[in-house]
Here is the input.
Amino acid sequence: METRPLSPGGTPPTEFKRELRLLDSTMIVIGSMIGSGIFIVSADIARTVGSPGHLLLVWLITGIVTVIGALSYGELAGMMPHAGGQYVYLREAYNPLVGFLYGWTFFLVIQAGTIAAVAVAFAKFTAVVIPSIRQTAFTLPLLGLNVTNAQLLAIVSILLLTFVNTRGIHGGKLVQDTFTLAKTAALIGLILLGILIGQNPSAIAANLAAFWNATWTHVSDGIIVSVEQLSGLALFAAIGAAMVGSLFSSDAWNNITFTAGEVVNPKRTIPLSLVLGTGTVTFLYLLANIAYILMLPVAGSPAAQDVVGRGIQFAADDRVGTAAAAVLFGEPGGVIMALLIMVSTFGCNNGLILAGARVTYAMAKDGLFFRKTGMLNAKAVPGVALWVQAVWASLLCLSGTYGDLLDYVMVSVLIFYILTVAGIFILRTRKPEAERPYKAWGYPAVPAIYIVVAAAIALDLLVLKPTYTLTGVGIVVVGIPVFYIWTRFVRRMTQSAE
Here is the structure.
């Protein structure tokens, strides 16, 4: 592997190596998006909206919103092809405080929490293949915490992928390309088998009979409490609430913007990879759900003993993909799906780990994070930032709170997406002369539609899930005093040094 040598004085390089071409960049977009969500979250969506038509509608709206967001980000990526991506866009469109609030939330919960969640999903599905992984490894007496083999495996996977990425961008992109191509091919294979071979006449008949019959099935402790018929505003509210899962499954497409310093011809490559990647994943997600409803009824009973009786709504542990695989392959289907998700989550985490450290690197260059994280190692990658990210993600694996944290920040994620797309309007006014190799498609209407739809979803979540969403907003707000304390501390340190 080619590496950049140290300078004559023995200091590390100060510039990234540009090795990510269009295929690599697109693989980062696709690989970071496809994890375990597409195989799981359709169960919760099905319970919330209740019908096959609305299940597909939720995924369709999510896909449209995601692609429109990618089209809008393309302008910012071409205009500011710098490491840090979205952090840089927010800083330039607004001010350093807004950029810091994004970076603060991103490091604390969004990226590290996602890495932890994906790593634990990898370990849990590995336990399907190797059951002994479910056992407790040891107990931490002072914390009263039982550490399982699955948590240890999750941490080992994070540390392994972090080590690979500290050895240079070439190794990181090789892992990303390999695993993304493998899991995409496997997902396509599952879709084709489901559509062409796995069709279940009884499931199809049941789904067609209630194709637009929207209901919200409320469940407590695995028992149906009530089934609410939906129409009008209640239906719109349910669709918005159901989109939490689909949005999470479609998130992380913006990760390629963080690596702009390592992309060949970033002004062209990043916008194109965003559109190709999000478009591909949206298409695959829709096809996967079509395959699900051809094999399984949407409605089901938690008391049923077989996968068809449980339906999509009550697939065991919400593992809809595993239930579909059982229809196709029988008892071995669980192991086959577990292997697919292992490949999917491992590749997904590589992309998240590779890209995430570039945000803390950019913050450190601005004096808004620890100075060492703003330095490149001998392989021209932010080694310290990678290890800091790995340590925090590993602690979240042990904490057992990362799932809640992800729920908390979904509204915050949407808010930052809205602010970023709104930044296009601000920068068009403030910097009309700036070079824009790519301009947001359909401007101003399409970016405005994105802002309105994303704001409606965020408002819906604030109303329906205030416990989670207000806490998420609180995490962002806490960053405000942290910003001022940090900048004052850095200013005093600078003055002392002078």
Notes: The beta strands are 136-140, 145-148, 215-220, 223-229. Confidence is low (pLDDT under 50) at residues 1-9.
